[in-house]
């Protein structure tokens, strides 16, 4: 099959003086088999993948492409990945033993990376998450898709790529925690990639102190876990007087305790992770704040059709032109239509961090250029949401709808 350009009728917001317009078609993009040509062409030449294996992807020919995303005709620079961003520096951690499985755990799925790919067999929904089996992200994926096959990935970037390359059907990624705050890395990846938010999962975090069978918590001398989990359980850790060691994931900490077999070493992880790696739960619910909730986003290649029944959320990202009170005016378009904002996050534009107002490097006032991410409680099928975005376009230089999806109101304990 050949890859050929095809026009897609995607709504755009275009800036006209003081008027809003729902305008022209999107720039051409690539689809498979649109010309009916049966000649063979290597898909990897178009997708930018050097080491391609036959049968890795199951492409589906689609004659109708629908898109609900609203975005500017000219994308912001942060949407286009640079060569420097291709290799992200990962925060140093003391332990990363995700590849050291116990001999009895070899049947567990191995993490996908951005370069090591495996194809989907199509028998059931495959859901990607960051981490290894027993991670909180996997619990969130199973809450969203109870009968799914979960696919662990070694980093957030690999999760996005797994969906884009048809290796999995959906992805579940954390976006914010009620104690630790927002996961900024995933906000940046949402803008860079073209996936759609199709749902959310809210998970009550229930940290457990786990150790080898027969060990008492008073015997522990060191505790392993993700740095945020260690911070969220300071009271009990101070009481025990243990040394804290950071790992890349709570499930990795449980895996290390099992594989190393040191009685004086424990971990902070979920009860499910303890069960997977054959550990005892020494103490449950050890987090300092009992109201510890993590919100996850469900991502897909295609958006869902928004409805008017039930409670919907819409997530958008936009930039604003410089001017007095412009952010106040932008937020006011929602208030005047009784639309509640459930989340607002600002992220600096990495490739355009400063704006010099008068064009002078010496005396001009300098401002940070920001991307604003907003979640509001309304469906894009409602007229008030459409009018709000039309009004927002008067102040914004760029708007993109990341997704419209049902709101999750049922918490699940881990």
TrEMBL record:
InterPro entries: ACT-like_dom_sf, ACT_dom, Preph_deHydtase, Preph_deHydtase_CS. Residues 126-301 form the Prephenate dehydratase domain. GO terms for biological process: L-phenylalanine biosynthetic process. It is found in: Plastid, Chloroplast stroma. Gene3D superfamilies: 3.30.70.260, Periplasmic binding protein-like II (3.40.190.10). It catalyses: prephenate + H(+) = 3-phenylpyruvate + CO2 + H2O; L-arogenate + H(+) = L-phenylalanine + CO2 + H2O. Its EC number is 4.2.1.91. It comes from the Eukaryota. GO terms for molecular function: arogenate dehydratase activity; prephenate dehydratase activity. Its main location: plastid. Keywords: Amino-acid biosynthesis, Aromatic amino acid biosynthesis, Chloroplast, Lyase, Phenylalanine biosynthesis, Plastid, Transit peptide. Residues 315-406 form the ACT domain. Pathway: Amino-acid biosynthesis; L-phenylalanine biosynthesis; L-phenylalanine from L-arogenate: step 1/1. GO terms for cellular component: chloroplast stroma. NCBIfam families: PRK11898.1. Converts the prephenate produced from the shikimate-chorismate pathway into phenylalanine. This is Arogenate dehydratase. It comes from Perilla frutescens var. hirtella (Perilla citriodora).
């Amino acid at each position: 099959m050949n890859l050929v350009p095809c026009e897609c009728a995607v709504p755009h917001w275009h800036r006209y003086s003081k008027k809003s317009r729902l305008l022209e078609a999107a720039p051409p993009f690539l689809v498979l088999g649109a010309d009916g040509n049966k000649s063979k062409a290597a898909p990897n030449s178009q997708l930018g993948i050097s080491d391609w294996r036959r049968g890795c992807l199951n492409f589906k020919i689609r004659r109708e492409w629908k898109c609900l995303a609203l975005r500017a005709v000219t994308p912001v620079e942060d949407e286009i990945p640079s060569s420097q961003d291709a290799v992200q520096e990962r925060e140093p951690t003391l332990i990363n033993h995700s590849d050291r499985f116990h001999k009895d755990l070899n049947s567990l799925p191995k993490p996908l990376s951005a370069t090591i790919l495996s194809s989907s067999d199509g028998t059931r929904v495959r859901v990607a998450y960051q981490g290894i089996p027993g991670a909180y992200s996997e619990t969130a994926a199973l809450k969203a898709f109870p009968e799914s096959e979960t696919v662990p990935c070694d980093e957030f970037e690999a999760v996005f790529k797994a969906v884009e390359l048809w290796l999995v059907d959906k992805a579940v990624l954390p976006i914010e925690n009620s104690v630790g705050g927002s996961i900024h890395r995933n906000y940046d990846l949402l803008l860079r990639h073209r996936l759609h938010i199709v749902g959310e999962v809210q998970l009550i975090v229930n940290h457990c102190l786990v150790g080898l069978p027969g060990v008492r918590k008073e015997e522990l001398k060191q505790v392993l876990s993700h740095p945020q989990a260690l911070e969220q359980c300071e009271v009990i850790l101070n009481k025990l007087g243990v040394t804290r060691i950071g790992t890349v994931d709570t499930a990795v900490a449980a895996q290390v305790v099992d594989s190393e077999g040191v009685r004086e070493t424990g971990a902070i992880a979920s009860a499910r992770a303890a069960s997977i790696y054959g550990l005892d739960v020494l103490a449950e619910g050890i987090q300092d704040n009992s109201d510890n909730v993590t919100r996850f986003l469900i991502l897909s290649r295609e958006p869902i059709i928004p409805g008017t029944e039930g409670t919907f959320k819409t997530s958008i990202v936009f930039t604003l032109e410089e001017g007095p009170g412009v952010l106040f005016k932008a937020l006011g378009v929602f208030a005047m239509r009784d639309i509640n904002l459930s989340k607002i996050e600002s992220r600096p534009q990495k490739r355009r961090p400063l704006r010099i107002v008068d064009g002078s490097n010496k005396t001009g006032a300098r401002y940070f250029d920001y991307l604003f991410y907003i979640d509001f409680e309304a469906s894009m099928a409602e007229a008030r949401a459409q009018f709000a975005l039309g009004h927002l376009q008067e102040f914004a230089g760029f708007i993109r709808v990341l997704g419209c999806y049902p709101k999750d109101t049922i918490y699940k304990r881990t």
